[in-house]
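so my prof wants the structure for this chain in the tokens format not the other one, which i didnt know existed until like an hour ago. anyway here's the sequence
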Amino acid sequence: MKVKEGLYNILFGPDRSSSSSPTTPTSSTSKFTSAAASLKVPPGALANLTSHSIHALQNLSSFTPRPGSEPCPASVPAYRRAAVLLGLFAGRNGELYVVLSKRSSRLRSHGGDTAIPGGRFEPTDSDLEYTARREAYEEIGLPIDSTKAVKLCQLPPFLSANELVVTPYVVLLTDHTIQPHLNPREVDSLFSLPLVSFLYHNPPRPLRKSLHLPPNPDPEALRHMPANEVSPISDWHTCRDIVWLGGNRIRRHTFWDERNPIRGLTSDILIMAAAIAYGEKPQFSLHSPRQPSQADLIKLAFDSPIAVKKFRVKPRMQFLKTPDAFSFTKSYERTNDELEQPQDEKADFPLAPPIEEGKGNGGVRKPKL
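here's what i got, hopefully its the right format
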């Protein structure tokens, strides 16, 4: 299916004010020029971004993985390697947005789920970066051309539920006139979200508007939200622990966008990308106690007695008993206000501090584990 509109129109719709749509600058300031040079992009590609967003891009561009979390280990066979292309672009209010897709509901594997475009390595691929670019082109029509999708960094590999080792590549889309071509066999639709939103448990009001959430959480809606493993109840972020390889307890996160939830591996990748970009820890508890790193999980999947040496591996995850639901009290509204911070000069969406144990719960009881 060919989509005739440009990328920005597809993701935000054609009816928008001129102030929120990207425009081509008539001149480039020295700030844009120096930042563009360091990122190896045309100066005009940064003209619609805030200084906070430009700094986030520079953080991604300078990212270096920690020792022990480098590229896909040699022990992983080629047929169990995959890559995804995390495409960022200048969205509304000069913030960084990420392109996401809703997988076709007809797919047998993860049908209807939110995904970052990508797929398996093929023998004809020169490397995993090419895999990510090729798959993004085949699925949604993002250009393979590295001048239109400029590489910012390569993130450490992740282990998926079906035990593929997935390497994410973060790119900046510099051309808003890109016309996506959705492959109907693989993708139902496209949408986008602010990258910074994946650092929040309770987003502040300016960000809630961009996420199409009410200014304050609706008490009735909160009653129907899934229970959290930790943290007060939220209408944006929830988490649950599962038991995976070797009996290890792993925390899985879900973000409840109105178009489609973002969960599992996709959430994990977006949380890491946002944390690197904005130099902040998430507002929620990211890992279970003693949770293995992704590098350790990959070793368990490929270099241990429980390794499965097959092309396809069925998920070996076991969901724990659902936590008791939170009891709701009127004091929650006060709690949400306390988590909000006034806007500063750096960004439209300032980061709130992480929730600390025993503080700011406002009468909302934590679930029994």
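also thought this was worth mentioning. The two ends are 47 Å apart (CA to CA).
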